[in-house]
Fold this sequence. Notes:
This protein is an alpha+beta fold.
Amino acid sequence: MKFEAQLATIRAPMHETTLSLMHEAALAGSAVLLDAFAALERLEVQSKRPADLVSEADLGAEAAIRAVLEAARPELAFLGEESGYQAGRAGESGGLEWVVDPLDGTTNFLCGIPHFAVSIALREAGGPTLAGLVYQPLTRQAFAAIRGQGATLDGEPIRVSPRRSWERAVVATGIPHRGRPHQEAFTAELAAVGPKVGGVRRFGSAALDLAWVAWGRYDGFWERGIQTWDVAAGNLLVREAGGVLTGIDDGQDPETGEGLIAATPWFHPELLATLRAANRSVL
């Protein structure tokens, strides 16, 4: 199906645009998250463990998001971090699916750190993202994009950073979890990048890291071993804001989250070459 036809199919009659539907769904999920985030402050008088509350918030937020999306577009497939893949109506989905991370930044949320997001994307199954939204519940910031129409923050256009300097560049990354692959590679990468840039940040939400690259706050972002629902919306934001996004290693698909680097057009080849050289040093 050509993109123009796909775009026509994703406009639901009861919503002015697909993004308004996604925003409505994000607000529904955010309401669940904000209630749970406030409840974390009161756990000392409850028997419930913080991890239990976060798990309930994750599940509840995804259910709230899914309810809004399915009420408007029941024929579309759904891929959620918590519930997995649910097929749409046979022959009616047009090959489209929602991809949802109801709470990106779980550890931040659990520890009371106010930096987490809802990520919702609509994409061709196994193909490109057509529309994406990253919503920060606490700041109420909505980063949004439709393929071919640019990226916005709260309705205003955004672009990647114009900086062309290693010394002024600020980059974001994610640290591999204990016991997972990529730790040796990451250590070498950080040692290579850190001394060259103005700063390295690790804020704990890949969706927001990508949104901030699109917003021009970060010059680049790289991470290994994350999931497709972490990046499905954010990757589109970067591309539509004028950024470049690829895998870190040859053959990696950045849409899977296996390994990705997102950066400004000037900084991307510089950062990619540095990361690959660092990896050769540990082979």
